[in-house]
Amino acid sequence: MQFVYRLVATVLMATLPLPAVAAPIEAILYKNPHCTCCDGYAYFLRKSGFDVKVKPTNDLAEISRKAGVPEELQGCHTMFVDGYVVDGHVPVDIVKKMLAERPPIAGITLPGMPAG
Q1: Could you give the angle at the alpha carbon of 38 between the alpha carbons of 108 and 87, nearest 5°?
Q2: Is 102 left (phi over 0), alpha (psi -120 to 50) or beta?
Q3: For labelling, which of 14, 65, 77, 79 has a CA lying 20 to 30 Å from the CA of 36?
Q4: Which of 83, 80, 81, 75 is nearest to 104 (CA)?
């Protein structure tokens, strides 16, 4: 009888679907080559389920401008994620909320450079 239980358990384990694992959220983050706080932000994003590709550039202001970010709202890096632009150190929970709710906006920004 124990053999039958093991056989049923094996068949069930082989045929039941595995729990879904969320795919990482792909993002590209453009930053000044000399800025280290942006690397910290990318690291935090990765720990929060993002697959972030960091691209150093000397044309950050131009990238932000082309993305539609007004100069007075530009942060120290510009990230593109799932059709949105995220400029500056926007909290990860806010980025995830935007991605979940899909508002009809171009993106979000937290301008300036964080102190310290």
Answers
A1: 15
A2: left
A3: 65
A4: 83
What total number of domains does the chain contain? 1
Kindly state the tokens that stand for 94: 């806010």
Q: How many angstroms separate the CA atoms of 71 and 64, rounded? A: 8
Q: How many CA atoms lie within 13 A of 56 on its CB side?
A: 7
Whether 84 maps to a domain, the answer reads yes
Percent of all residues in the chain with a pLDDT value above 90, rounded to a whole number:
68
Q: Which among 64, 62, 61, 54 has a CA at the least distance from the CA of 33?
A: 54
Q: In this predicted structure, what is the pLDDT of residue 21?
A: 58
- The closest alpha carbon to 48, from 7, 91, 86, 88, belongs to 91
